[in-house]
Design a protein that fits this description.
single chain, mainly alpha
Length: 114
Amino acid sequence: MNINVGNKLKQLRKSKSMSQEQVADYLHLSQSAYARMESGESHSWASHIDKLCEVFEITPEELVRGEKMIVGNIGTNNGVGYAEVVNQLSEKLIEQYEERIKDLKQTILDLKNK
């Protein structure tokens, strides 16, 4: 998911003719922290979703579209609201962290056994 969102962030930034540093300043981050978001190395885009959507003039749904999440338009009765999008993102991030922790524990075990 991070790589897909990262690619979208990069495309959006370039479409606005902005530098990574400009977006990072808007988010009150270092340029390197923002670069990690674009490269998919960081999950922190989720905690900055409001500001990212504001700077790129998009909705959260547009940022995560195509991420196998079923979302609707914000503010519609038949769509999924902003809170649910955030919940879906949070659940997905937790899954990714749990998987990463599992992989790291296995790596530690393998190293101990050498």
